[in-house]
Design a protein that fits this description.
The protein has 6 helices and 8 strands, in the order βββββαβαααβαβα. The protein has 189 residues and is α/β, with parallel strands linked by helices. The radius of gyration is 19 Å and the shape is globular.
């Protein structure tokens, strides 16, 4: 099913794993005849997987490995990877914390500011190892780090939010991300 996303653009609906039911059919297909290739712009992937932009899922190593396998991993630019030079001990702390200490620990860890030089470094690490540098940030993060992401040469930039539109209305005190303008600026860099 096609979905209108504005300005004459159409997208195909994607499904989550909870929405898929496999049932036996009357015909089968040899895997050699199946084509799972998909494209975003000039990037083509053979495996229809985009791994989530979550600290516990994607780091530089996993982004590169998924690229090698034909899938795509998206690095969260507002997470642990861009706040700490060495994120491994931080991730270990998160993994070992009990549920009563989780919220205070996360508040402590995310109080560390995002470092623009780490945003650039992580993107360059992925690219230098032959991976596709797909990154993600909130609309505020996109406005703040878009130029750094473009300078570092990211291949894809996902804007993550509950609702994203090209004409978001907000109070006068808040400057919303103009998605159309952001895309134009990213393409011109």
């Amino acid at each position: 099913m096609d979905i209108q996303i504005g300005r004459g653009k159409i997208a195909r609906r994607a499904y989550g794993i909870d929405e898929i039911a496999l049932v036996p059919g009357t015909r089968t297909l040899d895997p050699a005849l199946a084509d799972t290739t998909w494209r975003i712009g000039n990037i083509e992937r053979k495996i229809p997987i985009i791994a989530s932009a979550m600290d516990g899922v994607i780091d530089v190593e996993m982004a590169v490995r998924l690229s090698e396998l034909g899938a795509l991993g998206v690095l969260n630019l507002e997470g642990i990877q861009t706040r700490y030079d060495n994120p491994e001990p931080i991730l270990d702390r998160i993994a070992l914390v009990n549920k009563d200490e989780f919220v205070p620990l996360m508040q402590e860890l995310y109080a560390e500011p995002i470092k623009a030089e780490l945003v650039k470094q992580r993107i360059q690490e992925i690219k230098s190892r032959g991976g596709i540098a797909a990154v993600s940030a909130t609309p505020v993060g996109a406005m703040k780090y878009g130029s750094v992401v473009a300078e570092a040469g990211a291949d894809l930039f996902f804007v993550q939010a509950t609702v994203v539109s090209s004409a978001h209305l907000s109070p006068e005190s808040i400057t919303p991300l103009d998605l159309a303008e952001f895309c134009r600026e990213m393409l011109s860099r």
